[in-house]
Input
Amino acid sequence: MMIKVFEKNCSISGKKVFYLEQPEGMNTILFLHGKTYNSGDWLKLNRTIEALHDLQYKFYAVDFPGFGRSEKNNLDPVDFIDAFITEIQLNDFVLVGPSMSGGYALKFALKYPALLKGLVAMAPAWIENEIEHFSEIEIPVLLLAGEEDKIVDPEIVKKLHKVIPDSELHLFKGLGHPFYFEDEVLFKNHLIEFLLFNNLLGNALL
Output
């Protein structure tokens, strides 16, 4: 089954922002991207998008300013996420962030906790000196990393798991930084299990 995903644009601070939308469902999940990727890369994970659709999840993926097809602007990345979800009217959603955006996603959860119902941080980057701050995150958090990651030390997610009260940790044996592309099925399974276990399905009937 191929799920139809639409290409969209909006304007934030007078600059074009490109995003993808699969609008069918009662729940919402937003995918961010890493430094060398963009929103379109998530379309490679077709089985993941299909599984989310089966759980009544609307799917969104956005290009950060200056990446993919979004124009540059001067917004702080965390504030950009807030401006984007405000513009397209998202709330009570699950946020997925790998690498660069994993760090942004964790900081977003600290700054705007009421907007999220779950967070997936995948090999989050640039947070080595801030780990203790994330102990204040109270929503369910799924922490993922490849055991052979040479870009972000897997020890970071282990430390996060110790300080974030409601967190779950999975390391992908033999896989590197983009583990979610290297083994989509395993990534999909952990993501779906996280959503089910934490009852992040709203009023959807399975």
In short: The longest helix spans residues 184-197. Strands lie at 6-12, 15-22, 27-31, 57-62, 93-98, 116-122, 141-146, 167-172.
